[in-house]
Each structure stands twice: as structure tokens, then as C-alpha cells.
Amino acid sequence: MATPADKAKKDSTDHTFRRYEDGDFKHLPWQQEIFDADTTYKCPTYIHKTPPCQGSCPSGEDIRGWLNIVRGIEKPAEGLDWQEYAFRRSTDANPFPSVMGRVCPAPCEDGCNRNEVEDFVGINSVEQFIGDWALTNKLAFTAGKESGKKVAVIGGGPAGLAAAYQLRRMGHGVTLFDDHKDLGGMMRYGIPGYRTPRDVLDGEMDRIIDMGVEKRMNTRIGKDISIKQLEKDFDAVLFAIGAQSGRALPIPNADKVTNCVSGVAFLSAFNEGRLKTVAGKVVVVGGGDTSIDVVSVARRLGRITNIHDKDRPENIVLGHTAHDVAEIASREGADVMLISRQPIEGMTAAKHEIDDATREGVEIQGSLSPVEVIIDDDGRATALRVAKMDYSSGKAVVVEGSEFDIECDLIVSAIGQTGNMEGLEGFGNERGLMDADKHYQMPDKPGFFACGDIIRPHLLTTVIGQASIAAISIDHYLKHEEMVKRPKVDVHHFDLLDKLRETNHTPDEYKPAGPDDERAIDRGLRGTIDDDYAVHNYEDRGNAEIVASTELFLGHFEHEDRNKRVETVPDSSQVLGHFEERVAGLSEEATIAEAKRCMSCGMCFECDNCVIYCPQEAVKRTPKEHSTMGRYVYTDYDRCIGCHICADVCPTGYIKMGLGDH
Ligand SMILES: Cc1cc2nc3c(=O)[nH]c(=O)nc-3n(C[C@H](O)[C@H](O)[C@H](O)COP(=O)(O)OP(=O)(O)OC[C@H]3O[C@@H](n4cnc5c(N)ncnc54)[C@H](O)[C@@H]3O)c2cc1C
Ligand code: SF4
Ligand code: SF4
User: Fold this and answer.
1) Quick one: which atom of ligand 1 is closest to the CA of 195?
2) Could you tell me the sign of the dihedral formed by the alpha carbons of 642, 646, 652, 654, in that order?
3) Alpha helices (runs of H) in 234-375, residue ranges in sequence order
4) What's CA 444's distance to the chain center, in Å?
């Protein structure tokens, strides 16, 4: 049986406890100090990883980077405002910070490691501040050096605009075609103005157009201009045409009546300023963002009794213009109901949007499946027949005999969208969308690319992220280069070399030491410690790994309440005619305070813990004249004994014991 003494002996050979005895203060030769004297054989290395906020942001924004700029850790060059510096960093990936800050459902916040402490960092409220500051201060974008190549971008929604922005930065000429009068796609014709105020939207879009993007509005490709013509006139074509057609309810009679319309058509009529009122009860079928926008708009519009037939909402949605009387007639609160096949908690719309709609007086019922549209002798829908759904077995089961009718005057289907392929036959797939590979190239159609909702309807941030990758692919195509393999973590991440260049710390050019070189002989051809061509002891795993909360020292962070934006959501008695913006941005002071809650996962944020706690004083601050983000501390390996205290107390998971491992 092993005695405690045996165990100690075994531990000593396993290097699991300190080898120094009390009073043993004589330094060993440095090699021994590092490789023999420690308990682990390892010394600290500085490992950059992608934070989960960024990994969850479909645009791949360097969120930690711009938060560190806002909080004052990462400094701009002299003469540049921190606000502008933060704006440049965020718009490297996404040119719409003001819009995103308002309507992005912020998957980044769901992924944020700070959720493990008390609450996520209010990332999109900081993003809104950055974007609004840039608009107030009229910041502009700059185009790259002209390449002489021309790209046709079909669709002036967020995907087309973001692609145009990235392509202009690369110097390519861009012509943007859109069949609407105004740019914006669903940002303008889908999302209501009280969520994306039009001055904010126009400001962010104009900034892109001002980079020298030619726009051709009221021009439908496939009708006004053929694809063949585009092929002749342009070096590459990008489809960013979105999903314009709402899916009809797949139930009897839905396609026979005029007063059963799609959510996108309803919202488009409202956003074009044509739809001013609803009539009787409105029943909306859905569960996602679009359905919530429909019910919220319907509640704001209110209803008019004794409406003129021509002014009925379905006729306006189908293209008529309402009589003026529809605008001035006194109206009352509309009776609006939202039904979802899923239980309410399973609806895809964000929970706070569901709560807001309920507060605004919308009746929401989950677990109801539409069965049939009930029509009268005139062929108008008078009710929607529904059946109850049961999910208790883990499967969706229609409860037999549970059907009942919901009387209504208008049925709105918001159950999904497909593309409008008129004139584009041969480019779509069987789902009414388009296919593209991971570089957003269309299969078997060299020179054609596609991105955005037309690939798969999702979110603004998603289509903007795709546009950025599509632009890189188009750039390769135009230069006749191979497509490069996309990294595992495909984001716009921090690059220490870029940072060193930006701060005039560009490493020296690498000159290999020849056998007679004095430096090489001195060093026995080992190590690079004294050389300035190398970025020492730093590893960038940003494109392969995401730093988990378990890698952080969470005990470092004290509880801090999130700085929340003030939201003025009207209640059911105030909602009629309420078209003002609901969210007030944070003040500058609150924005900075919020950015300070960021734990800078995966990157040094200059807390000094490693410098303070290292018992050997082996970790030192990089002299000020050489210091920059990611190079704030260094280790003196002559002193390090591999005790790993620095790694333990590093709050951000940036320090890992590794160097000297064998
Ligand atoms: C009602 C609604 C609310 C939403 N709310 C949110 C939200 O809160 N947050 C969020 O992140 N996302 C939201 N989304 C999703 C988001 O709006 C879309 O993912 C995004 O707009 C898709 O961008 P896109 O550029 O691919 O397409 P679109 O925005 O649809 O733009 C495509 C453009 O191409 C034009 N076009 C189409 N065919 C042609 C052609 N042949 N020739 C010329 N032009 C053409 C269209 O007219 C349109 O202007 C919402 C969507 C809807 C419908
Ligand atoms: S775009 Fe959306 S996901 Fe990305 S940082 Fe902004 S709020 Fe977060
Ligand atoms: S704490 Fe900061 S870096 Fe970490 S996930 Fe949250 S926002 Fe990103």
C-alpha cells in the first residue's frame, strides 16, 4: 500500500508540487529555471481567441474591439475621436450600426459570457450610440483605389447595400438595381418606421451611395433589363433580391378570397403610405418578426367602421390608394389577434417583442393551427377556422374535434417568404429561393453570386455578414484568384500585426541569420527574443476558437447592473396613432459605463493582475513606447518558474500555460 511519503515522492516526480525548499533562493541557470524548476514545465503564452459575442454575431463584428475602444482601453491615433475610431471598427463588418443598434435581435447578447456573471453586455445599445454619433457628425466612408472592374448588384436592400459598400472599399465599380422607388428593401418596406426611423436609415444608406455607387431605381432585372444585358455590361453579378413574396396559407379557400393577404404585402402598403386604416377584426397567422410588425401596425392604425369598399385594407394592399376620408375619419382601436401554430413560448419573434405587442393590446394565442378560410356568398372571408395543437407527446398533434371559427374581416398570413423569380427563371431553386455555395457563388454559373434572404430568409445582420463574404469572393473572381478556404470562425477579428502597423510598431523585415552571423552564434541559433521581426509569444487562434466562459476568471468581475435604454412602449389605450420611436439611446456616459461591463473575453484588457500577482515579478508591462492592444505585458522567461498564477488570475482567458511544454 502506498504511504504518504511514497505519494509525495511520486508527486515530486510528476512535478505536481513546488520543488523549492524554504531558504532555497539561489538562482539556477536560466534553462533550468524554466524547464526544470517549475511544477508544470510551462510558461505563459498570450493567446487571442474570438469572444462568443462576436462568434454569435452573423456579421462577425469585432464587438470586443469596439467596446474596448469605447471604454478607453484601445486608443485611437492622435487627432481621431474615440467615437469615430469605434465607428470605423464596427463598420469594417457592418455599415449599419444605427439600424442594427435598434432592430437587430442581438444574438451576440445571447452568446455573451457576461450572462454567466449577472446579465449580458448591452452590445446593441452601444452600437446604436456609435452609429448615431457617426450620423450626427456626418462621418463618411472612403472608396478604395479604382480597379476598373464593374459589378452589378441586383437589389438595394441591406444585402445589396452592404455588398456595394465592401466592393467599393475594394475599389470595384458598383451599379445597384432595385425595382422600388427608394432603397432599403425590407429595412424600408417591411420594418415600420417607428422601429427604423427613416432619417437614420437614409443617413446610413446615403453614406454608402456617396462612396460612388451608381443606383438605378424603379428598374426590375429580368423585366426592364435582361440578365444577358448585365452579363455584357458587367464583370460580375450579385443577386441580393431578398424574399419579396409572402407565403400563402396552405389551407382551403385562402387563395380564393381577396381579404386574405400576406404580411409583407400588408407592411409594404403601410410603409409606402397607402394603408391608413384597417376595418373589422384582423387575424394574423405567424409567430416571427413579420407577424409582430403586422399586429403592431394594425393596432397603431386603428379601424374605421362603415369603411368605403375601395378603402378596405385588402384593396389598398392590392394596390389601390385610399380616399382621403380614410385618413381623416375618426378611428377606434382595432381588434387584432395573432395566432401561432407553436405555443407562445416557441414563437420565433423575440420575447420582448411579444410582450410589447401584448401590452399594445394584441390578443396572442399559441398552439392553434389554421384549417380553412370560411367564406360567405360574396366570396369574402368571414372567419378563420382553426384547430388546437397538442405538443405534450413531444410531437405536434392536431387535437381532433377541437376546431372553432374566429370571425374576422382580414386574414394576414405571415408564415414565411419566398423570392419573386419573375424574369429570372433558371436562377431559382424548387423552394423559390436561390442556391449558393459557401463563397456565395451560384453553382455552375461562373460570375454569378447570390446572398441575403434569397438564399434563406433570416436577419439583417445575417445578410450583411453574407454580403461581406460575397464581396471577398467577387474580388477573388475579378482578380482570377482561387477562392480561399473560409476559416472555422469566420469573423472580422482582431489582428495584432494590423494593430502594430496602425500604431507604427511594424515589426522589422525578417532577415535570416547566416551561419557566420554574430547574432546567430551568440544565440546558438535558438530563439527570437532579441529580434524585432517577430511578434513574440503571441498566438492568434481567433479564426479557429471561441473563448468559453469557463476559460475566464469570472471571480474578477463584480456585479454591475446593465445600463438599459429607456423604452416607451404604449399600452393598449395609447397605441392608436403612436408612430414615434420606442427606444431612446443611451447617453455617452451610460454608453461608456456599459462598455466597461465587457470582460474582454480572449484579449488582454490591461487589468494588471498578472503583473501584480506574479511571485517572481516575471510578468512586466511593455514599455509605453512599444505598448499597444494585445502587447501590454510580456514575460521575462529568465524569471518565470511556471507557477501559472498569472494564467489563473487572468480574467479574460488570454494567458495560457504552454511555452516550454514538452
Ligand atoms: C416585416 C419584417 C420585419 C423584419 N424585422 C427584422 C428585424 O427586426 N430585425 C432583423 O434583423 N431582421 C428583420 N427582418 C429581416 C430582414 O429585413 C431581412 O433579412 C433583410 O431585409 C433581407 O435583406 P436582403 O437585402 O436580402 O433583401 P431585401 O431587404 O428584401 O431587399 C431586396 C431588394 O431587392 C429588390 N429586388 C428584388 N427582385 C429584384 C429584381 N429582379 N430587380 C431589381 N430589384 C429587385 C427588392 O425590391 C428589394 O428592394 C424583417 C423582415 C420583415 C419582412
Ligand atoms: S449586428 Fe446584431 S448580432 Fe452583431 S453586434 Fe450588432 S446587435 Fe450584435
Ligand atoms: S463580455 Fe465582452 S467580449 Fe465577452 S462575450 Fe460579452 S461582450 Fe463579448
Assistant:
1) 8
2) negative
3) 263-271, 289-301, 313-317, 324-328, 351-359
4) 30
Ligand nearest 548 Cα, by number? 3
Pocket lining: 604 vs ligand 3, CB cutoff 6 Å: no
Residue with cell 508540487: 17
347 and 450 fall within a common domain: no
Which residues, 6 or more positions from 325, have their beta carbon under 8 angstroms from its beta carbon?
A: 308, 311
Report the CATH number at residue 191.
3.50.50.60
Do 211 and 69 lie in one domain? The reply is yes
Domain hosting residue 87, numbered range: 53-244+420-478
Angle between helices 82-91 and 123-136 (to 10 degrees): 110
**Backbone phi and psi for residue 412, each to the nearest 5 degrees, phi listed first:** -120, 125
Closest atom, ligand 2, to C-alpha of 460 = 1
pLDDT tens-digit series, residues 415-425: 999 999 999 99
Q: Is residue 588 part of a domain?
A: no
11 inside domain = no
> Does ligand 3 have an atom closer than 6 angstroms to the CB of 602?
no
- Cα of 458 from ligand 2 centre, angstroms: 14
Nearest residue by C-alpha to atom 4 in ligand 3: 601
Supply the CATH number for residue 644's domain. 3.30.70.20
CB 141 within 8 A of CB 165: yes
In which element (H, E) is residue 228 found?
helix 227-233
Three-class SS state of 314 = helix
Please give the distance of CA 40 from its chain centroid, rounded to a whole number: 40
- Per residue in 191-225, pLDDT (tens digit) is 999 999 999 999 999 999 999 999 999 999 999 99
Q: Answer yes or no: do 175 and 231 share one domain.
A: yes
In angstroms, the first-to-last Cα distance of the chain is 31
Q: Are 598 and 69 in contact (CB under 8 A)?
A: no
Q: Does residue 28 contact residue 638 with C-beta atoms inside 8 Å? A: no
Task: Please count the CA atoms within 13 angstroms of the CA of 136 that sit on its side-chain side.
Answer: 8
Q: Which ligand minimizes its atom distance to the CA of 264?
A: 1
Ligand 3 atom 7 nearest Cα: 598
* Total number of domains constituting the chain: 3
Looking at the structure, tell me whether residues 95 and 57 fall in a common domain.
yes
Angle at Cα 510 formed by Cα 507 and Cα 513, nearest 5°? Answer: 135
Q: Position of cell 434572404?
A: 453
For the Cβ of 107 lying below 6 angstroms from any atom of ligand 2, the answer is yes
Rounded distance from Cα 561 to ligand 3 centre (Å): 15
Binding site membership of 292 for ligand 2 (Cβ less than 6 Å) = no
- The confidence score (pLDDT) of residue 662 equals 46
What phi and psi values does residue 634 have, to the nearest 5 degrees? -145, 165
* 57 and 70 belong to one structural domain: yes
Q: From the DSSP assignment, how many helices (H) and strands (E) are in the chain?
A: 23, 23
Q: Which residues have any ligand 1 atom within 6 Å of their CB?
A: 103-105, 154-160, 177-180, 185-187, 190-191, 220-222, 240-242, 244, 264, 267, 289-290, 293, 420, 452-453, 457-461, 463
Residue 33 in domain: no
Q: Which residue among 124, 458, 594 is best mutated to probe the pocket of ligand 2, counting the most ligand atoms within 8 A of its Cβ?
A: 124
531 lies in the same domain as 443: no
Residue 79 in this model has a pLDDT that exceeds 60: yes
In percent, how much of the chain has pLDDT > 90?
73
